[in-house]
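Hi R.,

As promised, here are both runs. First protein below:
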Amino acid sequence: MKHLATLFVALASLASCRTSEEERIEEQTLAWHREFALRLLDDGQLANALNQVNLGLEIDSDDERLLLIKSRIHLQRGSAADVNAAEELLREFAGDDNFIACVGLGEALERQGVLRWESAREIESGKRATTAADPARRALDLRDEAQARWSESTQWYESALKIKPDYIQAINGLQRVWALRGDLARSLAASERLLALADKEVEFWRAELARPEIKAEYEAELRRRIQASAKLLTETHMSASTALVALGRSADAMAHLDASVQLEPSRAEIYSRRAQLHLAAGRAREASEDLRQFLKLSTLPIEAPDMVRAFDLLAQCEVALEAASSTNSPATR
């Protein structure tokens, strides 16, 4: 009996070792799938990223990190079905201890609102057919649904900030959603907060980049982050300028567009927006210069509405400059 007991102990120990080794291999495989999925997601290879996620979920269908990556893939795809799938996934994890899921859910609801708002506009214009007996009523209902989703979206972005107060993605979400809801003052406040945080982040990364003998891989990551932050800063300055124009503060709006040009001097639309502010203020020469820069940088076809408008505005500038020249007004100096 003593030998039999010893054999049972040995067998149990062997099974335990085997189980422990299997668990280690399983967790390592899951980690690889997560890492590869994130890399592919960052590179925009959504189909391959989703394949990695699904391979991982075959091992553990409840893996939270894989499911969160899957929700991000759905959001980047952006179709109505994808956004709905993202919302369903994210509602499982959003809460007091998961700011990433809170932000994701805020974004999913924001997108749902945008899709409904666009559908309402298309029904009103006749571009979209509807089976509703009263198309006008249907459009109003869709707008109400959009507002309801934006209201909930705001709550989830704010929930994320309660967990992580300086989380840039959440502040960026509030900047967008408050603008969609028509509260430009709150949108502008979010823009200003975002600009302050993003500037500090860029300063830190540039300081890191200036350190001697940093590894090539880290240097490449720093440059990628700086470039992404420059784009975010540009978008935020442009969002702020739009709000300021609507609030009647054109001079402040111009300052934000000037900052955008410094960040992304090859971005055509900035010059178009700045030209319109110059023209509204009677600065035909500056408007003309910005319009020419827009036409030089734009990749739009010449028949595109923005291009046609730019040529029309440029013609207006030339007329104004010629008229000013004949009277030697300040516009020509």
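And here is the second one, sequence first, then its structure tokens:
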Amino acid sequence: MDPIDEILEDARARGIRPWIGLKERLARRVIEVARARGGVTLQGGAALHFVYGSPRLSADVDFVGEAAGRRIADLGEELASAAGDLLGRPCRWSIRQSGRLVRGKIQVDIDEARRLVLPVEAFEVPAHRPRAEPPAGTVEEPDEILADKAVASADRLARRGTLKTTDLYDLWYLRTRLDVREVDRRLVQAKMADYGLERHGQDLGAAVRAISPEELRSALTGVLPTAELEGLDAPGVIEAAASMLEALRDVL
């Protein structure tokens, strides 16, 4: 069977969007290549999925580290080659930089009409609490992932007036499945300084509670396996995320 067809068939069997299933396989390969070279720390949704067991699939891969941008830039052609070997299709690498943020893309030509893009981003900021976690390499601790999610949520709400709905699931997962109960305010403040952000004092809890359970389920359809989505307590996810962000209002 064609490698892509095999991956798509597996994704459909799990209730995952087919292209998200392809991105999952590509992301795993990217992490393997980056781990072999070292010098970067995995963060965000990919860290939660591949290291900490979250069933939610992420559509991109994010790294941090003082030299993470340069590392990923140097790895670009190797990442494209590894993706091509995995899928049996031509793959290309493109990259652009904005300050300390490097945005790379692996582009896969599925056929004459379809192209898949996996974003691979690296922010040149320190990982405050990295840990070695074979086979993924170096990854942020759960409480640091929580701090990242909180800071990103506050920044997105301030700039765009919206929240990233899938982040609410991640916050819930961190609290209920990984038992991250206490939020380290000093770590949150360090993250804000890393990214050059200021406190806005928004009511993040109210913003989260304005999201309906139906909206949350819609955002998670196709990125959570069917079995997980069917048993999801959507109101509980919203309330857990709201209370976590509400507790940080004095620093965010």
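A quick note on the second one: The chain has a mean pLDDT of 95. Let me know what you think.

Best,
J.
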